[in-house]
């Protein structure tokens, strides 16, 4: 019998698929990350900037195959503006908005120090080399959580037709 092996060095068996729904990702991971609390599964979300490389290079770097999740600092295009940077560092392409942001549900989170949070999900396509989608999640209220420098969790997925 073949022995199960720990693929990512996280104590998880091969075949494990991290696939949280939107509310779980925001409540159990993004909010806890912002509040400095322990995550349910440490290491399943990578600490890296999705703009630091093309999506296929980023997944290869983190030994992921078709998708990965990332925590990243928000990067603005200009010092005084609020528009976010979307171009990859190596000029290998850029992420473009696919459609208007989706406002997430209001979540009541016990033990978070706040009664309620709101969040949004922004969907982007990788322009230059198709087949890649990124879902970017951010907390929009209360203001102290929305202004956090670690207020973005991104899910990068490859797709084929």
Structural description of this entry:
- The protein is an alpha+beta fold and 161 residues long.
- 16% of the residues lie in helices and 29% in strands.
- Strands 1-2-6-5-4-3 form a six-stranded mixed sheet.
- Helix 2 links the parallel strand 1 (45-47) and strand 2 (67-72).
- It is globular and about 40 Å long.
- The model is unreliable at 1-5 (pLDDT under 50).
Q: Layout of helices and strands, plus pairs?
A:
Layout lengths: L21 H14 L9 E3 L7 H7 L5 E6 L21 E10 L14 E10 L4 E10 L1 H4 L5 E7 L3
Parallel strand pairs: 1-2
Antiparallel strand pairs: 2-6, 3-4, 4-5, 5-6
Give the gist of this structure.
This protein is an alpha+beta fold. The chain is built from three helices and six strands; from the N terminus they run αβαββββαβ.
Shape verdict: globular
How many strands, what sense, and barrel or not for the largest sheet?
Answer: 6 strands, mixed
How are the strands of the largest sheet arranged?
1-2-6-5-4-3
The helix-strand sequence is HEHEEEEHE
Calculate the mean pLDDT score and round it: 74
Using only C-alpha atoms, the radius of gyration works out to 16 Å
Proportion of beta-strand residues: 25-35%
Number of helices: 3
Helix/sheet category: alpha+beta
Spans where pLDDT lies below 50 across 5 or more residues: 1-5
Distance between the termini: 36 Å
Please bin the fraction of helical residues.
Answer: 10-25%
Q: Please count the beta strands (DSSP E, at least 2 residues each).
A: 6
């Amino acid at each position: 019998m073949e022995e199960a092996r720990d693929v990512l060095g996280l104590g998880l068996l091969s075949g494990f698929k991290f696939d949280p729904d939107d509310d779980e990702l925001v409540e159990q991971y993004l909010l806890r990350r912002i509040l400095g609390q322990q995550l349910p599964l440490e290491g399943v979300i990578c600490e890296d900037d999705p703009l630091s490389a093309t999506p296929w290079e980023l997944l290869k770097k983190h030994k992921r195959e078709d998708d990965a999740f990332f925590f990243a600092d928000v990067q603005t295009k200009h010092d005084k503006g609020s528009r976010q940077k979307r171009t990859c560092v190596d000029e290998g392409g850029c992420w473009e908005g696919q459609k208007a942001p989706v406002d997430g549900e209001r979540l009541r989170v016990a033990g978070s120090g706040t009664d309620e949070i709101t969040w949004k999900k922004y969907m982007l396509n990788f322009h230059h080399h198709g087949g890649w989608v990124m879902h970017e999640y951010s907390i929009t209220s209360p203001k102290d959580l929305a202004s956090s420098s670690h207020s973005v969790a991104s899910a990068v997925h490859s797709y084929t037709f």
